[in-house]
């Protein structure tokens, strides 16, 4: 390994000993940049990697809110503004029980590279809370969102930092967050959040964007191999917004989704999650308090496997859509044994490092999360553009722009990999392509 990369990695590990997810994300990116540092020793003098692996700032704050019985609860809120060199900080908010600083920094770091790949002017950030939305009433969600924004508002702004949704934060939560921001600021600055409802400045196709974008990415990669989505079988995990959008586009492209999953287990639907009724049912499950994919199996009469993961089901293409590290070495072995050629991460950092190495060694074509799922944040940036213009584009316009962005992410990644003689490596390619734009902006703006 390049000595400079090795040194920075050791420092990151020493400085952040209790942050395994953050270290994992840094290690993954730096291993791709090894070869770039060999070619550019001047980056060491500028301390580029030290600067890139330390967030611009991380804030955490107390969120006190009242439940339906009038009892107070305390949660911790976060916003990590990782890197603002190419645009206002941009990235989602996650509400989930396991949220901690390590996961926030991991996702903020990844977001910095993802946002660079979109070609749009957005820096990287992430935020959220260890608040568990599971089983909460609508009124409790509103109380929490208002309390959360009462602290967050001082750190964000349309030219400063623009949050959006992530796990546990969808259209409803963004609505409550925006209402509170508008009230506090006494002004209608709707460029401050994305993923908004259409009646107050949202963009058409933002809900579909991550899934549609992922499938445009898949389509473009398959095109390089003279292949198409039509007739292919897919194993997907999750049942939230990302799984929904991906399934919707797979249906349009003529593929078939065999599985969905939740924290309770998975469903195998050999006929495919392929009618509008089935696809829209995913949203109903998310909206229900029950939060179990067993509901789908009961309703549509298919196999339900409690406590198991989807990765043993044979398919042509595997796409994790749930959460970080959902595919481990054991799962990767099953995926490779199926003979599948393609693996596309849609959830952020879907695979453990061991799983990723195994799939790479076994010759699968791999699309990394920060490239595959960039369509979500890309349409968020298009939402910001529409808000700035005080105008909205048609679904066709947004769709054409999204498709164009996803295609260029594939091709910029391939080009970056080729520049370093790495062949068709979409992982290193994405990291290098993203890095090039960031480092260019860093060098132009001086030491800071
Ligand atoms: O992980 C992600 O890219 C997101 N949750 C979307 C972020 C955004 O600002 O739209």
What does it look like?
Helix 6 (138-152) crosses helix 7 (171-185), helix 9 packs antiparallel against helix 10 (276-287) and helix 12 packs parallel to helix 13 (353-361). The strands form two sheets. A seven-stranded mixed sheet has the order 9-8-7-6-10-11-12. It has helices spanning 3-15, 20-39, 42-45, 48-52, 101-117, 138-152, 171-185, 206-224, 241-253, 276-287, 294-300, 329-337, 353-361, 369-372, 374-389, 395-419, 426-445; strands spanning 57-66, 72-83, 89-95, 123-129, 161-164, 233-236, 256-262, 265-268, 303-306, 317-319, 342-344, 365-367. The longest helix has 25 residues, at 395-419. The protein folds into three domains: 1-54, no CATH class; 55-188, Leucine Dehydrogenase, chain A, domain 1 (Rossmann fold, 3-Layer(aba) Sandwich), CATH 3.40.50; 209-372, Rossmann fold (3-Layer(aba) Sandwich), CATH 3.40.50. The radius of gyration is 21 Å and the shape is globular. The chain has 17 helices and twelve strands. The structure holds (2Z)-2-iminopentanedioic acid (2IT). (2Z)-2-iminopentanedioic acid binds next to strand 3, helix 5 and helix 15. (2Z)-2-iminopentanedioic acid is lined by residues 90-92, 111, 114, 164, 166, 194, 348, 373, 376-377, 380.
């Amino acid at each position: 390994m390049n000595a400079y990369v090795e040194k920075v990695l050791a420092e990151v590990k020493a400085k952040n000993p209790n942050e395994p997810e953050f270290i994992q994300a840094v290690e993954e990116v730096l291993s791709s940049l090894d070869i770039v540092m060999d070619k550019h020793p001047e980056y060491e003098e500028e301390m580029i990697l030290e600067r890139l692996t330390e967030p611009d700032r991380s804030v955490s704050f107390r969120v006190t809110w009242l439940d339906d019985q009038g009892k107070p609860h305390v949660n911790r809120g976060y916003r990590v503004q990782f890197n603002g060199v190419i645009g206002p900080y941009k990235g989602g908010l996650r509400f989930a029980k396991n949220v901690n600083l390590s996961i926030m920094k991991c996702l903020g770091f990844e977001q910095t590279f993802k946002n660079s790949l979109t070609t749009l002017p957005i820096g990287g950030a992430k935020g959220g809370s260890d608040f568990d939305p599971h089983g909460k009433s609508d009124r409790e969600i509103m109380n929490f969102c208002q309390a959360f924004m009462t602290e967050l508002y001082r750190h964000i702004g349309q030219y400063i930092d623009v949050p959006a949704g992530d796990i546990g934060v969808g259209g409803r939560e963004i609505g409550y967050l925006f209402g509170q921001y508008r009230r506090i600021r006494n002004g209608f600055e709707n460029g401050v959040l994305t993923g908004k409802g259409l009646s107050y400045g949202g963009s058409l196709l933002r809900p579909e964007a991550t899934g549609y974008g992922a499938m445009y990415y898949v389509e473009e990669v398959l095109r390089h191999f003279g292949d198409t989505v039509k007739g292919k079988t897919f194993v997907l995990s999750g049942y939230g917004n990302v799984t929904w959008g991906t399934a919707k586009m797979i249906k349009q492209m003529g593929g078939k989704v065999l599985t969905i999953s939740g924290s309770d287990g998975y469903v195998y639907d050999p006929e495919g999650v392929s009618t509008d009724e089935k696809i829209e049912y995913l949203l109903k499950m998310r909206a229900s308090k029950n939060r179990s994919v067993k509901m789908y199996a009961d309703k549509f009469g298919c196999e339900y496997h409690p406590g198991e993961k989807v990765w043993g089901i044979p398919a042509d293409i595997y796409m994790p859509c749930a959460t970080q590290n959902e595919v481990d070495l054991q799962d990767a072995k099953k995926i490779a044994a199926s003979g599948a050629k393609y693996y596309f991460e849609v959830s952020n950092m879907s695979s453990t490092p061991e799983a990723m190495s195994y799939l790479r060694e076994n010759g699968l074509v791999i699309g990394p999360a920060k490239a595959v799922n960039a369509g979500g944040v890309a349409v968020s940036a298009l939402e910001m553009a529409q808000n700035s213009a005080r105008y909205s584009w048609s679904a066709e316009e947004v769709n054409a722009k999204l498709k164009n962005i996803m295609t260029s992410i594939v091709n910029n990644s391939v080009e970056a990999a080729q520049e370093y003689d790495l062949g068709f490596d979409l992982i290193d390619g994405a990291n290098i392509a993203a890095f090039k734009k960031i480092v260019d902006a860093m060098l132009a703006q001086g030491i800071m």
